Amino acid sequence: MAERAARRCCLGWDFSTQQVKVVAVDADLNVFYEDSVHFDRDLPEFGTQGGVHVHKDGVTVTSPVLMWVQALDIILEKMKASGFDFSQVLALSGAGQQHGSIYWKAGASRVLTRLSPDLPLHQQLQACFSISDCPVWMDSSTATQCRQLEAAVGGAQALSCLTGSRAYERFTGNQIAKVYQQNPEAYSHTERISLVSSFAASLFLGAYSPIDYSDGSGMNLLQIQDKVWSQACLGACAPHLEEKLGPPVPSCSVVGAVSSYYVQRYGFAPGCKVVAFTGDNPASLAGMRLEEGDIAVSLGTSDTLFLWLREPTPALEGHIFCSPVDARHYMALLCFKNGSLMREKIRDESASRSWIEFSKALRSTEMGNGGNLGFYFDVMEITPEIIGRHRFNAENHKVSAFPKDVEVRALIEGQFMAKRIHAEGLGYRVMPKTKILATGGASHNRDILQVLADVFGAPVYVIDTANSACVGSAYRAFHGLAGGTDVPFSEVVKLASNPTLAATPSPGASQVYEALLPQYARLEQRLLSQAQGSPE
Ligand code: XUL
């Protein structure tokens, strides 16, 4: 225990929707401590469900800011009680659920700088917020503000080109605009607005932490190319917003040292550095150690893609953020709603409710499925906005059914071809060094991963991402400590254990899919035009 406690380390924090988590990662990049505080379970007095309050209108979703503060108090006390040696922490960083906003009341900065080590944070910060229930990413109550913002900058595509995304209801600029419109008094009493990430960093700094470029990209306010706030967007959302946000910084910036509160109360070293906190998705990208040309595919209820991009082409779908590990590059997020539930339905209908039979069907059919292509969207898809099941034979004629094994392959090939097509739509290119990192339920099925490797023409690795935002935050702390911008992130994390190789492309795969991908894209376009009621 003494030997373990004396390890030099970095801490990675994650302020997620349901809990606050922490990991300690040593200089060999091994995780040797982890802990968490669960909001519903450990702080029932706040009455949250899943860490949030869903309001009566069904679309407003908030979380109490003091619940987050108190969760930090509890977890630090737990660490202290376990004998954790805070003096060995060289640096810390963290992640926050994206898009949520915190409103610091005029005078709060003075309270933050004068914290007494004798009292927990939540007792001292009680009067520091002009809004006690913060809008979070699950909120979808700002449709009006979204339309106003898009109109102000020349439309949805123009906003996407500027900020990386068209207007989204959960994005912070639109949330701030709503606060300003509906609660102008609280807005005018606000001296600083933080994201969940920069708020958590501020608690450690004892001063306002700047917003980092990567999480700042989830606000519909930051010009992702120039890394400055867009005056047009700020002006469309609320007055005096620039001074309330403060200037954004590169994600690997050291924003200061921990406040004396942590030194005196917990025994942190006075020089322990705080590296800018970022969003949970960017932090996960760091945790998965994505590199240029790589793609991470999370195969869950919805399927999510994380892409590394050099030259993004922002679109009406997906989100482009500044990269959290390389300020010259970008990452993109794409969400596909028809993921696991769709795979399970087709398994039940066409593979006797068995993954073994499902795998057999994949193995007994050929790459390219004899030209048979399918679209399976039992719920309205996001990427693209199409609903229903649509099957086409090799002559591009619509057919009403496929033989069972053809149906299984059509589903999986279709899901992965859609991912490649939409990733390329955002500027993604498969490179010779491309790796695909697969996570989530379906990543346990080697035959599904084989199709993924074939469609992308790249090897597929599996990784466990249970703690990726936390671990990625600790990696980012090491990155900041090593000098940040001038040091490649990949150098800093080279000691971390490698993901497991699960599938490599079959011979001939690229010819098959190079021919099929444009055909799939054309059919998708045809379905989309039909859905929108326009002529083909
Ligand atoms: C991303 C998003 C969610 C939250 C979850 O745009 O809204 O993934 O970051 O914490």
Automatic annotation (TrEMBL):
| Carbohydrate kinase FGGY C-terminal domain ranges (all copies) | 296-479
GO BP term, example: xylulose metabolic process
Q: Which GO terms describe its molecular function?
A: ATP binding; D-xylulokinase activity
Domain Carbohydrate kinase FGGY N-terminal intervals: 133-287
Which reactions are catalysed by this chain?
Answer: D-xylulose + ATP = D-xylulose 5-phosphate + ADP + H(+)
Keyword check for NAD: no
Q: Which UniProt keywords apply?
A: ATP-binding, Carbohydrate metabolism, Kinase, Nucleotide-binding, Transferase, Xylose metabolism
Q: Establish whether keyword Transferase is in the entry.
A: yes
Q: What is its EC number?
A: 2.7.1.17
Q: Which GO terms describe its cellular component?
A: cytosol
- Give the protein family: Belongs to the FGGY kinase family.
Quaternary assembly: Monomer.
PANTHER family per the UniProt record, alphabetical: SUGAR KINASE, XYLULOSE KINASE
Briefly state the protein's biological role.
Answer: Phosphorylates D-xylulose to produce D-xylulose 5-phosphate, a molecule that may play an important role in the regulation of glucose metabolism and lipogenesis.
What's the name of the protein? Xylulose kinase
Q: Which organism is it from?
A: Microcebus murinus (Gray mouse lemur)
UniProt lineage = Eukaryota, Metazoa, Chordata, Craniata, Vertebrata
Tell me the name of the encoding gene.
XYLB
